[in-house]
Amino acid sequence: MATLKERTARGLLWGMVNNGTTQLLNAVFGILMLRHLLPEDYGKIAMLMVFANIASTIQECGFRAALCNLGRPTHRDYNAVFWFNIGMSALLYIILFLSAPLIARFYGDPTLIWLSRYLFLGFLISSFGIVQRAYLFINLMNKEMAIMGISALVVSGTVGVTMVYQGFSYWGLATQQVLFILVAAIIAWMYSPWRPSLKIDLQPAWQMFGFSSKLLLQNLFNQLNTHAFSVLLGRFYGDHATGVYSNARKWDDMGMNTVNGMVQDVAQPVLTRVRDDQGHYRNVFRKMLRFVCFISFPSMLGIGLIAREFLLITVGEKWLESALLLSILSVYGAFYPITTLYSNLTISQGRSDINLWNTVASCIVVWAGLFVLHPYGIRAMVIFFICVNILWLLIWQWFAHRLVGLRLWDVLRDILPFLLFTLMVMATTWWLTRGIGNLWLLLISKIVIAAVLYVGIIWMSGAKIMRESIEYLFQKSKFKNQDE
Question: What does the DSSP assignment read for 306-358?
Fold first, then answer.
């Protein structure tokens, strides 16, 4: 029987495989599409995604986390959530279908009416697979989730690229979104042994709603926070500016989600299982934090370092406006997985109310600041957004200290070495490559030099997290049962 540490490590490994492969495939399909799309095409989908994602959040209602927090949910619990999600999704789709003309009028773009109605089919379809994916998540079936995500992306990406190349432009992007959800739901049913019954009893869902409702509101405000730019830019600047920003954000999210997905797939189930022993709990959390920083800082700041060369080579000069924004956004991407880890800490402690009010407060600050700053341009808005999200980590840390006694000094000891090492590596790499004119040579040189320098510095510093990762990946030794 695998120990919790081995299961956690295996979950992180499969999370890395899943998210790494997913983001790589996303990058390949994204490059193929962007070569044949204009910023205006991309902007149309970005302006609609806020409505689609908010609807998806309402339909899920925080029940995945609520089911996980039960420890051992029963068939009755799963069944109640399944039928609740389907009913809620059908109601939401009808509302959004009828609201499509209002959405198009808000943005001043009549083409959005039927495009939105088609795109919104995705969250209706996803309602049939939410409980199945929750089962895989609760039981740490990360290998199965990896196969599900990768397969869905290959199918949907292939169809989407084909449609774009055939001249369907933004309809190809919309089809990719809908088809991904459909294929993922089908595969989740293949792997999950749970099946619904026609005996509909929603009482367990209502009993979980006290916990999940706070997560629902939190996730709603998370979506508002994430898509603030798409709404405001679409309203004040149009689909071109929205497309330029969304392309930069797309590449930042790809890198960020590679790390963030690993954390999200493992953190809450593992932390929930060790929450009765605060000393053990803090050790597990800090080890996850070190792993996140070890991966996130060099990956994301590295993306910022190569943004200009990468976009020029892959998608062409028409997307060059996105390069500077991507360099700036990479700072946000480097720190966001830490926020996710703190969020899972409070959820695993049964304090979804903390997540809710933290998210609501930060969202209000972000929206107010972006609205005030929008006359000063996108760059000022992006810098403000990043500063708010990084400084908000101090508030998350204050709550973590109150809940589990996690000290700020210990957290800084876990974060700062990896941050300082990364900044040193990026600065040195930029200085060494500043005279290279050829784009391909410059891109490759930056990647190779930064990778060699970072691995060398971490290895010489004696950081255990790197040695343990290598040992696990190559199975030279197993993780020991005692805490580090």
Answer: HHHHHHHHHT-GGGTHHHHHHHHHHHHHHHHHHHHHHHHHHHHTT-HHHHHHH
